[in-house]
What we know:
- 58% of the residues lie in helices and 9% in strands.
- The protein is built from twelve helices and seven strands.
- The strands form two sheets. A five-stranded antiparallel beta sheet has the order 6-5-4-3-7. A two-stranded parallel sheet has the order 1-2.
Amino acid sequence: MALDEKALRSLVTLLEEEDPASLALVRRKILGVGAAIIPYLDELRPAATPEMAVRLESVAGELRFQDLRRDFVRLSLAKTPDLEEGALLISRFGFADADAGAYRTWLDRTAAAVAADTPADAGVGESTRRLSRHLFQTLGFAGNEARYYDADNCYLTRVIDTRRGIPVTLTVLMLLVSRRLRLPLYGVGTPGHFLAGFKESGSPLFIDCFHGGRLMTLPEVKRMLVRNGYDWRPELGKPVGPRDILARVLRNLISIYQKTGAVDRAERLSTLVEIVLTGRDAKRE
């Protein structure tokens, strides 16, 4: 039976319990209610003691992550997960209050601006160059070389806000706009430096979104990998799908949080990687 407002308020006040066993029972009951109880947790914050505030935030965080896991499972059960939805779900992990609709609208407006500047008879190559110019010259998106290991670089919403990111998230941004323009761009999972790719006159070309949308030929990509200590393999130039792209973004975040000592965050993200790759939430089975 669903609890009414009075019962929900009473339940959250029980987080003041000092007995560990009783407190654990209260937490389980709150988690069983789900995200609907979060507003009642928030109500208590202004007057909460420091210890109680920590408990309130901890339980609210678990509730939000519980919902996020569920949404990741739903996303990942698709044969081809939606890259945009996945990127926005990852952003929700770091910024629960971000308005996904507002960022979708921003992507729509950006694509419309590129379309307005592109001749109707432009081919894939010319259209892609105009898209690249708009993102990296007109709007000023660029690689965050000064703060490469800042977690914000992995959250699409923050990349849009700050116009800075890492190779994979800047490429995701370009792919999402290109999809609205019906351009056949794809992600290329080259190790150490993710790229976008497309074909012009049957030949592959690559876009280095971290370095201002620089166009690269296949030989240039091969030389870049060798310089970075990687052996070239033909599969490295092939398209990678949304599932692998999302897993790569999540793994970047895991590495950042492990380096900064945010072990709990890294563990939660590891759960999301497993869900993205398998469509299963092992912790709930």
